[in-house]
């Protein structure tokens, strides 16, 4: 593929897409009466970090870290009472391919600088430790600013994804764009 901005090539960059997604937020009691199975929000947070002036700070010492995502991750895990080991699948915001790697580290699925090996070892594949972006992500399905990711995370927890992993998905992580402020949520089965 042709170079867009070194080192990013054409398929490392999503393109703007027309599309729509819808999420209905209601009480657990009301959700039980709906046609589709409800999904619970186990934890949700957004965060900003020091020196964040715009989408993200380009003046930090470490360019490949996303401290605002680390703060959001810590808050979501605390709110949900869950850990990275409890997450069965993920929908990672992927407007550009490198930010997937940084988010895997921020959410503690692997250590800092270890995300490349984590991916190369097959962790993100449908049968891997953390099936990720089973809908194709924004790079391959559509870039409608991540709302489609929330829908896919709900489908994964319901067992309704078109690319459903073979293992049960009790909890799915979904992340938002990096640094605007950034955030994420863990969706789980409705009790």
Write a structural description.
The chain has 191 residues and is of the alpha+beta class. The protein has one domain: Peroxisomal Thiolase, Chain A, domain 1. The protein has 6 helices and 6 strands. The strands form 2 sheets. It has a 4-stranded mixed beta sheet, sandwiched between helices. The protein is globular, with a radius of gyration of 16 Å. 38% of the residues are buried. The model has no long low-confidence stretch (mean pLDDT 92).
For this entry, give a set of tags.
single chain; 191 residues; alpha+beta; Peroxisomal Thiolase, Chain A, domain 1; 4-stranded mixed β-sheet; two-stranded antiparallel ribbon; 6 helices; 6 strands; 16% strand
CA(first)-CA(last) distance: 46 Å
CATH class: Alpha Beta
Helix amount: 25-40%
The CATH architecture name reads 3-Layer(aba) Sandwich
| Overall tally of domains | 1
What is the CA-atom radius of gyration, in angstroms?
A: 16 Å
How much is the average pLDDT?
Answer: 92
Largest sheet: 4 strands, mixed
Shape: globular
- Amount of beta strand: 15-25%
Count of DSSP-assigned helices? 6
Strand order of the largest sheet: 3-6-5-4
Looking at CATH, which topology would you report? Peroxisomal Thiolase, Chain A, domain 1
| CATH H-level superfamily title | Thiolase/Chalcone synthase
Structural class: alpha+beta
- In total, the number of strands is 6
Give the H and E element order.
Answer: EEHEHEHHHHEE
Low-pLDDT stretches are: none
């Amino acid at each position: 593929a042709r170079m867009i901005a070194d080192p990013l090539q054409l398929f490392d960059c999503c393109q703007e897409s027309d599309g729509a997604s819808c999420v209905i937020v209601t009480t657990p009691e009301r959700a039980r009466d709906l046609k589709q199975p409800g999904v619970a929000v186990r934890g949700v947070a957004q965060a900003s970090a020091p020196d964040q002036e715009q989408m993200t700070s380009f003046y930090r010492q470490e360019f490949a870290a996303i401290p605002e995502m680390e703060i959001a991750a810590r808050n979501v895990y605390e709110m949900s009472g869950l850990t990275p080991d409890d997450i069965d699948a993920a929908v990672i915001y992927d407007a550009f391919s490198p930010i997937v790697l940084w988010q895997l580290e921020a959410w503690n699925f692997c250590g800092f600088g270890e995300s490349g090996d984590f991916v190369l070892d097959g962790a993100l594949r449908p049968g891997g430790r953390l099936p990720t972006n089973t809908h194709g992500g924004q790079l391959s399905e559509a870039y409608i600013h991540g709302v489609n990711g929330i829908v896919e995370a709900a489908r994964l927890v319901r067992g309704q994804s078109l690319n459903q992993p073979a293992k049960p998905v009790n909890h799915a992580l979904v992340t938002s764009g990096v640094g605007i402020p950034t955030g994420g949520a863990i969706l789980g089965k409705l009790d």
